[in-house]
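Journal club side-thread
Mid-discussion, someone asked how the predicted structure for our own chain would compare to the paper's figures. Pasting it here so we can look after the session.
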Amino acid sequence: MLKDINLNAMNHFEAVARLGGISRAAEELGVSPSAVSQQIRQFEQQFGVRLFRRDKRRLSLTLDGERLFQTTTQAFRMMRDVRSAIQRQRQNRHFILRVSPSFAVRWLSPRLNAFLALAPDWDIRIDAAPDFSDFETEVVDLDLRYGEGGWSGLHQQPVVHDLVLPMCSPGYLAQLRARSDDPIGQLLQARLIDSVKTHCRWDFWLAQQGVMGERMVYPLRFDRSSMAIQLAADGAGVVLESTTLALNELESGALVPLSTAFEVIRFPAYWLVAPSRHTSRRIVRIFSEWMRDEGAAHDARATALMARLDCKIKDQRGRKLPGEEYLPDEEGDADASRETDES
């Protein structure tokens, strides 16, 4: 059985056989030549065979010694390879981010290469998933969450605003205007495309506008904003969506506001969320600072576009605005403010 084998003696035997001499083995192992010789004698006694032939000052393996060496050297080589792999893995630095699918594809992906330049030595994994992370049971460094904030027990930093308005293709808008000059009348005759997981849906928005009626139905419903936006750009109807996700279509003219008579609703919608223990990680800080800058640039771009389109913006009250940041200076989180290179 393995427990009956003197593994220390086996290590000495393998070194002598591989290096071809006791002195070389002693140097590699960091022990005296006499200690190596003693271990070899004990190993031979344990197996009950001669492992080396001693011809004057030269050692050569016996047949039994050769058989044992082939086995031990392979085993030790595999162990060394595994040790090296484990050490390399510990040296590698990993960053795992979870983000909502449509935001990941439409907003984050086009910008991601710029972030990679800031963290070239990190292994980065991004999970595009609609569910929030359970930081107690899952290995995730940071969530880039869509929502209203207020997640209990977690630090949160708003980084990107939503500007929400009804929009459609120019061709579809022309069809609606041919039926009515009144924006409300146009809505009553429009096919409404519903993004079912947004926080500003048609029911809420229509109630704010005082628009209700039997004909306000949503025959097209999608759980991915990217699908709803694409369908609206294809001329299938009117979508109530975010400039965060539809900015390229609005800038190119593939989508246009249904009417400048409707105010654009503005609120912080995308948040960096993590437990306090994660905020001391250097990579979390790098990504958070980068997201803050990218989010500010995006907000300025979207706001300027709304001005060019003559759309008025209304802030949704009762929500935090960017600038109320949790990294790294939130009161009572002194431990989280220490910058480390923990991986």
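Post-session note: The longest helix spans residues 63-91.
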